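[audit] Reproducing an earlier prediction to check determinism. Same input, same settings, fresh worker. If the tokens differ from the archived copy the diff job will pick it up downstream; this log only records the rerun itself.
[audit] input (322 residues):
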Amino acid sequence: MKSKYRYLIAISIVVLVFIMGFVSAFIMIKHPFSKFSSMKEHETYITCDWARSYYSISLPKDYYDRRFLNQTSQIVIGDKKFLDIINKSIPVKTVFDNCGEGMHDFYFIFQVDKNGNAIDCNIRKIINTPDDSDIKNADYLIKGKTLISNLAAKYQPGVYRGRNVNSLLVKELVIYVDKSGNSRTGWNFSEKLPGISMRPYNYGLRTPRGFHQKRELEEYKSSVDKFPGYPGGTLAMAKFIERNIIYPEAAKLAGVEGKVIVEVYIDEIGRVTYARILKGIGGGCEAEAERVLGLLKNFHPGIENGVPVKTKIVIPFNFNIG
């Protein structure tokens, strides 16, 4: 009889533990803040500490991270009118004088309070390198409060758990300026021109990222007795590239021209094993260079002391609308 009671007690405990675990899991899913020791800790977690560092902006403590909002803040103005005002407020000459020619990518970071007022706007330029990107202050283009005044727009505040809160509204805009200081398209939203953004040039190329890959690339020589050659010679490769390049529509629209410079890693049997963009021009030209590179046949490998070796070479891809 005692063993029977013990058995029932054991079953009851197991069922109780299971129910408690289920309830705890449900609460965690339904209310993520439950993983914090207090609501104050949760409130700290969702504030914009990362944005202060990433965008290098001064921001009051009570601004909320837009990734955690139930509804992000919005600017109540049509896209066309917004871009028209941006183009008038920040003319192409201002961009050219400060940034030079090329594709330029910017964040416009509006601070919108819980009452729907734009308090300030910071502009940050996205600086790209072959391996990473960085954010630089670009408030020299225009004062934030001047831009807000020019826009004369209404704003919808961000919403968190049913209440209006202070939050950030971020718009990413791009502009291409040619060597004469002109722009065919002026300012535009990056998402409106697919591929036009100058984000890190990692368009599917086997770009060295990890520690082991970078260690492996140390084996590739930049100086050898005989460099890798394309079947038929350099002229044959240049003609093949010219014949197969399809000019990206976004680049045509923006008037993007120039050279995409690709560093190509070729192993001891002539295969392209890695590639990375040393210089890009935007407009989707990097992705097109990658595509054409994939069409090239195997190379004749580089030779050092009569033996095939791993080598790296540089190949330019020319993009000229004319």
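[audit] rerun output stored. Observation attached for the diff report: The chain has ten helices and 14 strands.
[audit] end
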